[in-house]
Amino acid sequence: MENLLDARIGRVITSPIMVNTIFRDCGTSVFEAMSRLAAELGAINLGQGFPEALEPPELVEAAIAALRSGPHQYPPMLGVPALRQAVAEHAGRFWDLDLDWEREVLVTSGATEAIGDCFLGLLNPGDEVIVFQPAYDCYGTMIRRAGGVPVPVRLQPPGWDLPRQELADAITPRTRMIVLNTPMNPCGKIFDRDELAFIAGLLDRHDLVAICDEVYEHLTFDGRRHLPLMALPQARGRCLRIGSAGKTFSVTGWKVGYVMGDADLLAPVARAHQFLTFTTPPALQAAVAEGLRLGDGYYDRLRATLQQRRDLLADGLRDAGFDVLDCPSTYFLCVDIAGLDPAGDDIAFCDALLRQSGVAAVPVSTFYAGRDMRRLIRLCFAKRQETLETAVARLGAWREGGEGWRRAS
């Protein structure tokens, strides 16, 4: 059985074949490692963000119809017109953004590809990129592979407030861009208008670009709402805004993403896309176009359902004695394990938790460049009610001192 620690650290490649040092050294993603181990043990996987039973049936039927009717050849490199139009309309409908669908919208094979396209299209060797931590682990690796230098700026739990002075001090003559993930994975922070205005001022003052990862734009709770940085007039021409059908419609395996931005800013990003994936399956693009035009009721139900599931997991964990942080958005809870883990090693803690309780979580240290935030773990609540109830029961039994579950492989 693969040990999570081995997977997280990665294995040294001793082959004489020349390999890229960035990918050689990054190791296996902890998300993949936890999912593999959960599958091997038959555990409940609350580690990776796999939604359950949330896909809108209209979207699936639209994909089936598009597969039957075709076409099945290369669609336009920028994306099928129907989807690019729908992306622009959707941005106007929800965020009051005025986009030229022909020149300011690009369809990609998932949001991660979109992020990579932005870095490859805009960065030159030595350019510095400010990244707020905790940060999705692909950012740093992809920035380095594009020749850039990630510069971390840390947000602190439990409030995750923007450290304005630290951010301002991190900007140097080499700074090219800021990566802004809002709503923010893994902590659920939603940057407010004041914080966004401060960032917009920095973009303008220092001639910077913002890569705005907004894939959780619709997954906000308790009446809170997301505001895109691009919606601020001062930042409109300096933002590349990224969305994801996988997150909005709970079809993560479809890998359909989109980038919006000023035509001149988007052009080099489209060139990078051209030489990576070139395009995205046309049937899935057609289905997502229909999905983006679903009525407000769909989006309201999605938020309500996820809020109910969040509360089920959060309340159950709190009742069992876990220290659960506030979660205003995304579909992840953070749990503070400082009182449960005297060793201060969230990776080993998650490994032991999975084996002893039968529930997989993700160590939040993987979202930090220094791996030195060891007190938090992340759990996904975008699961069926019965899945969450079983997970709560197992974690509660584990918390009381018994393993409560055992399945050796």
Topology:
Layout: H1 4-9, H2 21-26, H3 30-41, E1 44-45, H4 57-69, H5 81-95, E2 105-108, H6 111-122, E3 128-133, H7 138-145, E4 149-154, H8 164-170, E5 175-181, H9 193-206, E6 209-213, E7 239-244, H10 245-248, E8 257-261, H11 263-276, H12 282-292, H13 296-319, E9 323-324, E10 332-336, H14 346-357, E11 359-360, E12 362-363, E13 376-380, H15 385-399
Short description:
With 409 residues, this protein is α/β, with parallel strands linked by helices. It contains 15 helices and 13 strands.
Please tell me the overall pLDDT. 93
| CATH superfamily membership of the largest domain | Type I PLP-dependent aspartate aminotransferase-like (Major domain)
* % residues in beta strands: 5-15%
Uncertain segments are none
Q: What is the level-2 CATH architecture name of the largest domain?
A: 3-Layer(aba) Sandwich
Tell me the Rg in angstroms. Answer: 21 Å
Counting structural domains, the number is 2
Rounded to the nearest angstrom, the distance between the terminal CA atoms is 8 Å
Task: State the secondary-structure class.
Answer: alpha/beta
CATH class descriptor name of the largest domain? Alpha Beta
Indicate the overall shape: globular
Alpha plus pi helix count: 15
Percentage of residues in helical conformation: 40-55%
What can you see in these coordinates?
The chain is α/β, with parallel strands linked by helices and 409 residues long. The chain has two domains: 4-55 and 297-399, Alpha-Beta Complex (Aspartate Aminotransferase, domain 1); 57-295, Type I PLP-dependent aspartate aminotransferase-like (Major domain) (Aspartate Aminotransferase, domain 2, 3-Layer(aba) Sandwich), CATH 3.40.640. 42% of the residues lie in helices and 14% in strands. It is built from 15 helices and 13 strands. The strands form three sheets. Strands 2-8-7-6-5-3-4 form a seven-stranded mixed beta sheet, sandwiched between helices. It has a four-stranded antiparallel beta sheet with strand order 9-10-13-12. The chain has a two-stranded parallel sheet with strand order 1-11. Helix 9 links the parallel strand 5 (175-181) and strand 6. Helix 6 (111-122) packs across helix 11 (263-276). The longest helix has 24 residues, at 296-319. It is globular, with a radius of gyration of 21 Å. It starts with a helix and ends in a 10-residue tail after the last helix. The relative contact order is 0.17. The model has no long low-confidence stretch (mean pLDDT 93).
